[in-house]
Amino acid sequence: MTDRFRSGAGRLCLDFIRTLRYRGTPSESEELPDAAAWGAWIDQLGPFPAPVHPASAQEARALREAVHELLTESTVRPAIRQRLNRFAALPVPAPSLTSSGELRWQASDPASAMLAMLARDALDLVTSPEFARVRPCAGETCGALFLDTSRPGTRRWCSMDVCGNQAKKSTYRAKATAS
């Protein structure tokens, strides 16, 4: 089974904002249209052992847009800062050790705990030296952000397998057509 949602951006909050796929392009697509989709995202990328069934995706989308503004705008509006701080103040999951020695994460409200984790991750990222390495993907229609962990800091695409491969194919076709 393949994963429904993209991951691998380098930080959980960066994977989260990718749920508005192709942001800012005519192909923009909402990946969290309802509670079931938000629950599926948590199930795929969150730490909880059991499926999560949130009541709504509205708060998740509101947090996603606040995180995106935090990471992309030079000045964060006070309302956005308050929203981020409110989500970050929610209870986070607690670790527990099972009788077989496995680590499990528990929360009375896993969806809210996931929102807290995402907000805290975004606040941590924007105040860390890593933030200087957050890059927009150079893919023409991608719109994603990623953390460039390459040694020289010159990575251009969120994914070499997808965006990088498409760019290289386009360059190859353009050269072949010009010949």
Return the CATH topology: Jann2411-like fold
CATH class designation: Mainly Alpha
Quaternary status of these chains? Answer: single chain
Along the chain, the helix and strand elements come as: HEEHHHEEHEEH
User: Do you know the CATH architecture?
Assistant: Orthogonal Bundle
Q: What's the N-to-C terminus distance? A: 42 Å
Q: Tell me, rounded to a whole number, the average pLDDT.
A: 90
**How many structural units, i.e. domains?**
1
Helix content: 40-55%
According to CATH, the homologous superfamily is: Jann2411-like domain
- Rg for CA atoms: 18 Å
Q: Tell me the β content.
A: 5-15%
Would you count the extended β strands for me? Answer: 6
Low-confidence stretches: none
Structural write-up:
With 179 residues, the chain is mostly helical. The protein has one domain (12-178): Jann2411-like domain (Jann2411-like fold, Orthogonal Bundle), CATH 1.10.3300. It is built from 6 helices and 6 strands. It has helices at 12-17, 35-45, 58-72, 78-88, 110-126, 160-178; strands at 20-21, 29-30, 94-97, 103-106, 134-136, 145-147. It is globular and about 65 Å long. The protein starts with 11 loop residues before the first helix and ends with a helix.
Protein topology:
Elements lengths: L11 H6 L2 E2 L7 E2 L4 H11 L12 H15 L5 H11 L5 E4 L5 E4 L3 H17 L7 E3 L8 E3 L12 H19 L1
Antiparallel strand pairs: 1-2, 3-4, 5-6
InterPro entries: ABATE (IPR010852), ABATE_dom_sf (IPR023286), Znf_CGNR (IPR021005)
Protein name: Zinc finger CGNR domain-containing protein
Pfam families: ABATE, zf-CGNR
